[in-house]
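Tokens for chain A. Residues wanted.
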């Protein structure tokens, strides 16, 4: 598949592809910018530190990385990007002026996908970038299918684990609070017993749909955690904000008005929610935050279901 066909194959529309050009010489950036500006969104950085910030914050689709730069070298930038789960899947192409075999071998060893030598030939650099972007999109596409819950089409547990690690690191770096909302459908076993499993599946799909509509900032995530359990990651969200979002989810599920004659919580399908919030620190862990949300969910159930229970960890 070529790049255009791949872009069409994605389940969700992909914005313009973004290429990051890193070089300490503005004239080199200008040359590459000329090659790509019509086709892609071009991001630029003139040193390694800046390059890593752009990668973390904007997640470009591919990087053209100068090897020799003052400060952090291109090789070191690549090593660090490959060590971070948030950036390790971005393909790196080294742009090198000296054609030394040893350098190339090292570059591949630390995770580069290709090399381009300066002075760059626009036709060659463009062809190589398109090839690697196509490969990257193919693997993104495969991964996205492997990360989706088959029934509800929200993220699955695997995707949740991956995103939680990424959000945790990001909030830790910035000193921002991270909130988790763990929720499940009230008396869902009885729902299946009364209405049958097909109806039960339809109910899960409907609930997943309203959760997706409620939780929609770019870095938020809704995932199916298990049977009738869902979990939401809300980065940069304090306790109050998370409680408000949880209440909005609860109201949205009630507003579906799905009848449930055997629910312990009332005549309609409802959810109970546990919220836990923390500014990630060195002596805390995402697992402990999730356990805290789980304990709050248990509290919400014990207090009568169809409600939100929340805790803020220090
Ligand atoms: Mg240089």
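Reply:
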């Amino acid at each position: 598949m070529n790049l255009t066909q791949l872009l069409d194959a994605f389940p969700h529309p992909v914005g313009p592809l973004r290429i990051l050009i890193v070089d300490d010489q503005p004239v080199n950036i200008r040359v590459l910018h000329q090659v790509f500006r019509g086709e892609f969104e071009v991001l630029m950085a003139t040193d390694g530190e800046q390059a890593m910030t752009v990668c973390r914050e904007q997640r470009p689709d591919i990087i053209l990385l100068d090897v020799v730069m003052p400060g952090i070298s291109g090789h070191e930038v690549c090593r660090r990007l490959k060590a971070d789960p948030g950036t390790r899947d971005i393909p790196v192409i080294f742009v090198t002026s000296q054609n030394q075999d040893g350098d190339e071998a090292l570059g591949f060893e630390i995770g580069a996908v290709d090399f381009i030598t300066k002075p760059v030939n626009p036709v060659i650099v463009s062809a190589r970038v398109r090839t690697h972007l196509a490969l990257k999109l193919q693997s993104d596409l495969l991964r996205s299918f492997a990360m989706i819950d088959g029934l509800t089409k929200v993220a699955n547990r695997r995707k949740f684990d991956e995103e939680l690690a990424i959000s945790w690191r990001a909030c830790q770096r910035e000193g921002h609070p991270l909130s988790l909302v763990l929720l499940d459908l009230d008396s869902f076993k009885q729902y299946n017993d009364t209405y049958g499993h097909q109806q039960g599946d339809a109910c899960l799909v409907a609930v997943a749909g309203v959760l997706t509509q409620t939780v929609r900032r770019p870095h938020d995530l809704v995932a199916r955690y298990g049977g009738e359990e869902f979990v939401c990651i809300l980065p940069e969200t304090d306790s109050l904000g998370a409680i408000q979002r949880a209440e909005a989810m609860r109201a949205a599920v009630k507003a579906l008005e799905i009848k449930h004659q055997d629910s312990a919580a009332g005549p309609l399908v409802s959810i109970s929610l546990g919220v836990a919030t923390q500014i990630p620190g060195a002596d805390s862990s995402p697992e402990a935050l999730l356990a805290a949300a789980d304990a709050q969910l248990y509290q919400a159930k014990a207090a009568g279901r169809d409600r939100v229970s929340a805790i803020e960890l220090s």
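The mean pLDDT is 92. The longest strand covers residues 178-185.
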